[in-house]
């Protein structure tokens, strides 16, 4: 291999994309994960859509009640400007106007409180839904993790020309067609059968 090919192998090893790193049945497992992720997304979106519609009801209600309020207020002003309009009748109209407005404010408050309860319920349901799906997904994710074992590392890179331990890292030397390369590998993880390549350099 050339030095550049080794560099590319190191990158691919880090991303876990080498064919040798793929576990048996990985393609099928990933498809299962895609199905689960899609179902979770659809169910969350549906819940968010319903909550959004409920929030929109409040906006529509406020716009409608504001329009009614302004119209009724304008009508009252007309009565106020009408000569000889009985004060007692005007006072009655004002009271009715205020009563209707108070009722609308109460209805708006009830809508808002209902929305807040729905919002809290929505987020609780989403958390519960995510927990439910994670219980299904986590075992699959573990099963599809790329193989980073020592044996697989040797299958990909071969045994090194020379191996040394300096501090917390191993240094593996490989002879390539166009020179020598050194892989710096985390020693403790390597000794526990998990190969993490920190860097690659040339001699």
Can you tell me about this structure?
With 203 residues, this protein is of the alpha+beta class. It has 2 domains: 3-22 and 147-202, no CATH class; 26-144. The protein is 69% helix and 13% strand. It has 5 helices and 4 strands. The chain has helices spanning 3-15, 26-81, 87-144, 150-157, 187-191, and strands spanning 162-166, 169-176, 179-186, 197-202. It has a 4-stranded antiparallel β-sheet with strand order 1-2-3-4. A hairpin with a 2-residue loop joins strand 1 (162-166) and strand 2. Helix 2 packs antiparallel against helix 3 (87-144). The model has no long low-confidence stretch (mean pLDDT 93).
Distinctive features:
single chain, 203 residues, alpha+beta, 4-stranded antiparallel beta sheet, 4 strands, 69% helix
Q: Which percent range describes the beta-strand content?
A: 5-15%
Uncertain runs: none
Classification by helices and strands: alpha+beta
Tell me the number of strands.
4
Strand order of the largest sheet: 1-2-3-4
Radius of gyration: 35 Å
Number of helices: 5
Described by the principal axes of the CA atoms, the overall outline is rod-shaped
Helix content: 55-70%
Number of folding domains?
Answer: 2
Q: How far is the N terminus from the C terminus?
A: 15 Å
SSE string, helix = H, strand = E?
HHHHEEEHE
Taking the sheet with the most strands, its summary is:
4 strands, antiparallel
Average pLDDT taken over every residue: 93
């Amino acid at each position: 291999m050339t030095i550049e090919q080794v560099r590319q192998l190191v990158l691919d090893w880090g991303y876990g994309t080498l064919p040798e790193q793929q576990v048996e049945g990985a393609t099928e497992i990933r498809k299962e994960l895609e199905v689960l992720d899609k179902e979770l997304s659809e169910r969350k979106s549906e819940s968010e859509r319903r909550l959004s519609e409920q929030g929109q009801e409040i906006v529509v209600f406020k716009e409608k009640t504001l329009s009614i309020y302004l119209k009724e207020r304008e009508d009252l002003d007309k009565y106020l400007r009408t000569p000889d309009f009985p004060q007692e009748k005007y006072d009655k109209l004002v009271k009715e106007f205020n009563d209707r407005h108070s009722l609308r404010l109460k209805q708006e408050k009830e809508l808002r409180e209902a929305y807040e309860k729905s919002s809290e319920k929505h987020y609780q349901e989403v958390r519960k839904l995510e927990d439910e799906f994670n219980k299904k997904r986590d075992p699959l994710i573990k099963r599809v993790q790329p193989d980073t074992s020592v044996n697989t590392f040797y299958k990909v890179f071969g045994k090194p020309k020379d191996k040394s331990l300096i501090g917390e890292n191993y240094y593996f030397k490989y002879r390539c067609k166009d020179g020598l390369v050194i892989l710096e590998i985390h020693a403790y993880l390597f000794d526990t059968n998990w190969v993490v390549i920190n860097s690659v350099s040339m001699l």
